[in-house]
Write a structure and sequence with these properties.
This protein has 341 residues and is of the alpha+beta class. The chain is built from eight helices and seven strands. The protein has two domains: 132 residues, no CATH class; 161 residues, Histidine kinase-like ATPase, C-terminal domain (Heat Shock Protein 90), CATH 3.30.565.
Length: 341
């Protein structure tokens, strides 16, 4: 399941909501168990203590889960400090409201065996429970996000040299043959260098930025291959603002040229299309190279892209490769998520 900047899961469909509801129910019951044991030590019967603790835990937990689902997209656009303060304030409010609801429910369920007054004690317990849970979850999930970020950086380091060395080789081949074209490619490479060095540090970049770098790479390759390479980019403007890890698409385009176009004497064409459907962004990279195997049969490039997308978006991200009618298509799918600003 994908996560936002605070490490909280972002729900994207009914299946995600169902899993979240079940997990919330189980976690709330686990929290209720030690609370009921504490209440039992104060003299209340175990059964009654467990009912009271369960009602409080479920009410507070349900409100916290629902509120984060609605308000986290807004908090995610704030600075880290303001966002975390907003999360804690949200949990504090949910603790107060959940405790008040639970207080009245317990009065109905238990009757005379439950004293709902004074109310401020109930509110204090509920707010404290919610704040503690919010603090623990935020800390754990931020640590998890940091681990994911380091994994992305490690994978990025494996991709960049391969791309840059190939481009330098293309420029070297043109220096004597056509110095003007070599100079043009060098300037384009400078822009690509700048992107590869700075963009990965930002987290998610916009699809528009990624397509710009892909177009620059295709222009360099077209300088090298000449009439043997034609390309077309067709991206729906509505999806260009959504985010993805930097240099996700370039390795797939490189594969299409290296294993699909370059081996063909007559060359071929590469098409990059992008659109959105049912909350997902789709990018299709198609080449007419006759279905040659990618990465020399190892699939390392595809696997790296797949792992980076999974680490960022979770199981809803997909990278597939298919061949039909002499054309090969790499299809990338990932949920809509705001890019870093």
């Amino acid at each position: 399941m994908p996560a936002d900047a605070f490490g909280f899961e972002v729900r994207a469909g009914w299946a995600d909501y169902s899993r979240l509801a079940l997990r919330t129910l189980l976690i709330d019951q686990l929290i209720a168990l030690p609370v009921s044991l504490v209440m039992t030590s104060a003299g209340l019967p175990l059964g009654k203590s467990y009912v009271i603790a369960s009602v409080y835990s479920q009410c507070i937990g349900a409100l916290c889960t629902l509120s984060t689902s609605f308000f986290l997209p807004h908090l995610d656009r704030q600075t880290t400090g303001r966002g975390l303060a907003g999360v804690m304030a949200l949990y504090f409010t949910c603790g107060l409201a959940g405790a008040e609801v639970a207080r009245h429910l317990c009065a109905v369920l238990i009757g005379a065996g439950f004293d709902p007054d004074p109310a401020y004690i109930s509110w204090a317990i509920g707010a404290t429970m919610a704040l503690l849970v919010g603090l623990v979850l935020t800390t754990v999930r931020r640590l998890r996000a940091r681990i994911v970020s380091r994994e992305l950086e490690a994978l990025q380091a494996r991709i960049n040299p391969h791309f840059l060395f190939n481009t330098l080789n293309s420029i070297a081949a043109l220096i004597r043959e056509d110095p003007v074209r070599a100079e043009t490619m060098t300037l384009r490479l400078s822009s690509l260098f700048r992107y590869t060095l700075t963009a990965p540090r930002r987290g998610l970049v916009t699809l528009n930025e990624e397509i710009t770098i892909v177009e620059g790479y295709l222009a360099i390759e077209q300088e090298r291959l000449g009439r043997r390479l034609e390309y077309r980019i067709d991206i729906d403007p509505d999806v260009q603002r959504w985010g993805l890890p930097a240099l996700t698409l370039q390795p797939l385009v490189e594969n299409a040229i290296k294993h699909g176009i370059a081996p063909e004497v007559s060359g071929g064409s590469v098409t990059v299309r992008g659109w959105a459907d049912a909350g997902l962004v789709h990018i299709a990279i198609t080449d007419t190279g006759g279905g040659n195997s990618r990465d020399g049969g190892t699939g390392e490039g595809l696997d790296n892209v797949r792992r980076r997308l999974f680490a960022t978006f979770g199981p809803r991200a997909r990278v597939t490769l298919s061949t039909a009618s002499g054309a090969t298509e790499a299809h990338v799918t990932f949920p809509k998520m705001e890019a870093e600003t």
